[in-house]
Amino acid sequence: MTHSRTSWLAALAVCLGGATPFVLNAQDLVPPQSALLENAPVTRVLDEAISPSDMLIPALPISTTSNVEYAESTMMEAADASGCDPKKVAELKKKAASAYKTLYYDNNFSYLCDPCYDGCLLGEDLKRMCVGDCGVLDIGGEYRARYHHEQNMKPFLNGVDDNFLLQRLRLFANYEVNENIRIYGEMLHAVSEFETAPPRPIDENYWEMQNLFIDAKLMETCDGAWYGRVGRQELLYGSQRLVSPLDWANIRRTFDGLKAFYRSDALDIDAFATRPVRKSLNDWDSSNLDQSFYGVWSTYKKSELGTIDLYWLGYENNGGGAAGPFRYQTFGSRVNGEKHSILYDLEGAYQFGEFQNNDHNAGFFTLGFGHQFKEMCWKPKVMVYYDWASGDAIPRDGFNQLFPLAHAYLGWMDLFARNNIEDINVQLTAKPCDPWTLIVWYHIFNRQNSDDVPYTVTNNPYPGTTPAGSRYLGQEIDFMAKCQLTPRSDIIFGYSHFFTGTYFQDQNAINPNVFDGDADFFYTQFSVQF
To answer: Does the entry feature the keyword Signal, yes or no (predicted)?
Structure first.
């Protein structure tokens, strides 16, 4: 790509950054959030959640939701001027700061309906706009830019160096026709520039429809309600180990299909039948008719153990090639909570079916335990994880990681898939002050099955490798510093280093084309939501 493609993106970001939206203080001027959005799927991801159990999920540099605290004196002054309860004003400020979710169709701007809200955040004048007699429209988006310096690791451990700039623009419109029907659309434009090696498939896509669906309330029950959704939609469930829109990528993963979902205070249930959307740079993206992805995901939120997920996921590929055909059924569960000051994040799944006329039996599990020292300065949190996923003597017949956010858990350099892997890792998180979050994460990687090879993050065998040699793959250390500049903008600095293990050295002795050196990764990311 040439840098001329980025000029409009940069100009748009500058213009939006300088915008000063007016504030709507009168409740009768701001239409209330419809029941559809009030009961929309709850995004249970990473650093966006506010419940104690969700704090157990590793903090990751993939979200721009703010955790900035407003100054108490400012909130008190605002409360005195408006005659509102200071606690209510503070709560509205927090709701405004966390209005954007990883799934933008879950965004919640209902705080604008309250006359006690007197804030002024970017893009608020384009939210809760009246359309006709009973319609309401929200318009907004996100601009994100990330610079990469990669040494010996594009697109995996291969000895290739590169420097490049990724830019992404997301634009959405949410139209609530009435209390029972809404239409949501979102476009995405992503470019990669200044690189010397070819862009990765996840780096570029031009003006594609990321989401376009209709929601309808189907029926109400004593405790909740059932809804239906038809169209193109992103999927995100649980810890994102198996189902994720992959926000770290410059483009995002999405699906075409149907979903019925139930929402209540204690229980969420999703049942969906979809086809993955296949990217095409020169044509509109379309459904992959060779593949289908379906299942049921339930979440119980009122257990004494914390949050409990139970799920069944089906993934079928009728296409040819080395990766197919296959038919997989995955049954799993996750428990996420805190007992006696001990944090825990436990998940596992059994997978069975067929792979190229062979019986398929595989699985994975994650054991995570830790503690947060809330009374100490910087409030450090320590988590220790053991990640295990099965391999197999038949290449590619190990655990299939489905549609994951692999970046979140198996090292930020994205060198390995959740397939034929054992990963002992320790994470330390600290907050020296409200805007800043610091993370250090250390991994030790081994092959689970010595009769199988390691797999890249795309679940393909490392090129040129064989099962021979050591099980030890190497170690990775990740550093990240995130500063929340405003409630809707942040900047992230990251550095990672991979210490190559004896497996790759053994493979290099067999095949000199297999790279056996260390690798480095540095990145800087800026994001603004409007």
So the answer is: yes
Tokens 């809707």 sit on residue: 488
Question: Which residue in this structure is represented by tokens 């990145």?
Answer: 523
End-to-end CA distance of the chain: 26
What angle is formed at CA 428 by the lines to CA 350 and CA 247, rounded to 5 degrees?
60
**Total-model pTM:** 0.87
d(CA 65, CA 472): 37
Helix (H/G/I), strand (E/B), else coil: 470: coil
The conformational region for residue 299 under phi > 0 = left, psi -120 to 50 = alpha, else beta, is: beta
| Total tally of structural domains belonging to the chain | 1
Question: What six digits make up the tokens of 196?
Answer: 């010397």
Structural domain of 124: 3-529
Query: In this structure, what CATH number is given to the domain that contains residue 160?
Result: 2.40.160.100
**Separation between Cα atoms, residue 74 and residue 292, nearest integer Å:** 52
Instruction: Note whether 311 and 294 are within 8 A (CB).
Output: no
Q: What is the pLDDT of residues 218-272, one digit of tens each?
A: 999 999 999 999 999 999 999 999 999 999 999 999 999 999 999 999 999 999 9
By the 8 A CB rule, do 202 and 218 touch? no
Phi, psi of 293 (to 5 degrees): -135, 125
> How remote is the C-alpha of 109 from its chain's centroid?
21
User: What are the strands, taking DSSP E only, across 235-357?
Assistant: 255-264, 267-278, 286-287, 291-303, 306-317, 326-339, 342-355
CB 397 within 8 A of CB 366: no
